[in-house]
Design goal:
By secondary structure, the protein is an alpha/beta fold. It has eight helices and eight strands. The strands form two sheets. The chain has a six-stranded parallel beta sheet, with helices on both faces. It has a two-stranded parallel sheet with strand order 4-5. Helix 1 packs antiparallel against helix 8. The radius of gyration is 17 Å and the shape is globular. It starts with 13 loop residues before the first helix and ends with a strand. The N terminus is likely disordered.
Length: 241
């Protein structure tokens, strides 16, 4: 699949969305929520129509598997990463009939800070499996079988290599283009997205969908304002819902 996804519906301007967030808080309008969901569905339908067998999709924070199932039905190879045991069981039940779906029960390794350190943090909304642990050495942390290094995974997928940090993935798929990546990781996107950007791991992806974290609107807006101008609006979507 060549080129970025062509959406069926125009994306809202990032600056307009940001200014609305900074405006005086108002009560939620159900009609606006409905419009937003309709826009997202139309956008998703356009993406799904362009996925083909051989494309690679990376669903980080797959939850109960609704998006994973949509992706699986296109025939694309899907890596679905989810840490919550209850959600993972539902995800497994929905997608067990699809041989093109590789489910990974793990947490995402936090991105390094400016000093190169990777503290252990809980992912927002990830449940008991993501309970904070005591700090560990970087080498031991990366080898933890319950954690996945997203920077390594994206590097390998972009290069067409088997992602060595994903359990049981070797020999189960053929290399292809990383066509779609979804990041549904709560507040950890504030660290991971800039890290992916700095590593050059966003530009090669067909489309990246990022869920804005709850309770961190100001920090997220700052990150988005700094990064969004560098990407086409259909390339990296900062307000996926």
């Amino acid at each position: 699949m060549d080129g970025a996804f062509q959406a069926q519906v125009d994306l809202p301007d990032v600056r307009i969305v940001t200014e609305r967030r900074r405006a005086k808080p108002v009560a939620k309008d159900p009609k606006q929520d409905e419009t937003r969901r309709a826009w997202a569905r139309g956008m998703l339908d356009g993406m799904l129509s362009q996925l083909r067998p051989g494309d690679i999709c990376l669903d980080c924070g797959a939850g109960a598997g609704d998006l994973t199932l949509d992706l699986a039905e296109t025939g694309a190879t899907v890596f679905a990463i989810e840490s919550d045991p209850a959600n993972f069981d539902i995800l497994t039940g929905k997608t067990k009939a699809f041989v093109n779906v590789h489910r990974v029960k793990a947490r995402i390794l936090p991105a390094p800070n400016a000093d190169g350190d990777r503290p252990v943090v809980a992912l927002a909304g990830a449940g008991p499996a993501a309970r904070p642990q005591r700090p560990m050495a970087k080498r031991a942390l990366i080898r933890d079988p319950d954690m996945v290094d997203l920077l390594t995974v994206t590097r390998d997928l972009i290069a067409g290599r088997v992602p060595v940090s994903l359990p049981e993935s070797a020999g189960m798929w053929r290399p292809g283009r990383l066509a779609l990546m979804r990041l549904n990781l709560g507040g950890e996107v504030l660290r991971l997205v800039p890290a992916l950007h700095a590593a050059g791991h966003l530009a090669p992806v067909g489309c990246t969908l990022i869920h804005a974290p709850r309770g961190a609107a100001a920090a997220y807006d700052t990150m988005r304002e700094a990064m969004a101008p560098g990407y086409a609006r259909r390339k990296v979507i900062f307000d996926w819902c």
